[in-house]
Specification:
The protein is of the alpha/beta class. Helices cover about 45% and strands about 15% of the residues. The protein has a seven-stranded mixed β-sheet with strand order 3-2-1-4-5-7-6, sandwiched between helices. About 40% of the residues are buried. Bound molecules: S-adenosylmethionine.
């Protein structure tokens, strides 16, 4: 786990995470102030379309107060807190990187949601799951980091009852990449598993799931990442003031990398809902 947690920092989205505290200071919060999830949702969601995308998942899956949810790769904890705050569901939020997990726990506690969201730090593939069971597993832009998809689906299946659901928004390879492109993504996005879409779906079928929904998101996410990059650049002065030059450059570089690969037509995005048979 330590190797992955260290190596994944080649992805610049995961460096300079003190930007969250800078944003809190910009909101005028002192370190002991309590927070509302909606006050921080514009910087605690590390996927596309923020809490709007999480709301769509809540609806699609049918999450409510009775649901026991596991999020794989929970980042700063934004989606887990949003689910808990808006449905009353219990969420276990598993995150590989210790610094992000510590930050996520702090934010959850300050939002008064520690009774519903349990943060855990570890690699999903090695975590001691014991006899844990969840009604559903959710994951935003995380499982493409994990190279062993077969093992990931086998463990997931063991954590779900029959009819349990697996929801993900994730990356896939839309068109064959050159070695240089694939290497750039391996470093800049820490890609571990990037099959084509047919293989992506087939892996779930082979692991004993049926596909309830499979939405192609590539064009939508190309537009999203274009707007994100342009918006970030046009607010350079603000970002350098709130953070610093090196944070701005790291984020700009990351946003540019992702957008270039979406625009090439080779990086793809998918939203998938599967049910364990
Ligand atoms: C792009 S972030 C998304 C975070 C969160 N899902 C969100 O949308 O705000 C993906 C996260 O997955 C985590 N991750 C990657 N591999 C993991 C693993 N094997 N086990 C647990 N978490 C992992 C990364 O550390 C990263 O924080």
């Amino acid at each position: 786990m330590l190797d992955h947690a260290r190596e994944i920092k080649s992805m610049k989205l995961y460096t300079h995470i003190d930007r969250v505290h800078n944003e809190l200071a910009e909101l005028g919060k002192t370190p002991s102030d309590l927070l509302k999830t909606e006050e921080i949702s514009h910087f605690d969601q590390l996927h596309y379309h923020g809490t709007g995308a999480v709301d769509e998942a809540i609806k699609m899956i049918g999450l409510d107060q009775q649901s026991r949810v596991l999020e794989i790769g929970s980042g700063f904890g934004g989606p887990a807190r949003h689910i808990a705050a808006h449905t009353g569901a219990r969420v276990t939020a598993l995150e590989l990187q210790p610094d992000q997990n510590t930050l996520a726990s702090e934010l959850t506690q300050r939002c008064g949601l520690s009774n519903l969201v349990d943060h855990a730090c570890g690699d999903f593939l090695c975590h001691p799951w014991g006899d844990a069971e969840f009604d559903c597993i959710v994951s935003w832009l995380a499982i493409f980091h994990i190279s062993d998809r077969q093992k990931l689906l086998q463990i997931s299946s063991g954590l779900l009852p029959t009819n349990g659901l697996f929801f993900t928004e994730d990356m896939y390879c839309r068109q064959q990449m050159s070695d240089v492109e694939a290497e750039e993504l391996e470093k800049g996005m820490y890609t571990g598993y990037m099959p084509d879409l047919d293989t992506y779906v087939d892996d779930f079928l082979q692991a004993g799931f049926e596909i309830l929904r499979c939405d192609e998101m590539s064009d939508n996410w190309t537009d999203f990442t274009t707007d994100r990059l342009n918006d970030y650049r046009s607010n350079r002065e603000r970002h350098v003031r709130v953070h610093d030059e090196s944070t701005f450059l790291a984020m700009e570089d990351f946003y540019d990398l992702v957008n270039r690969h979406f625009r090439s037509g080779k990086l793809g995005g998918v939203r998938l809902l599967a049910r364990k048979l």
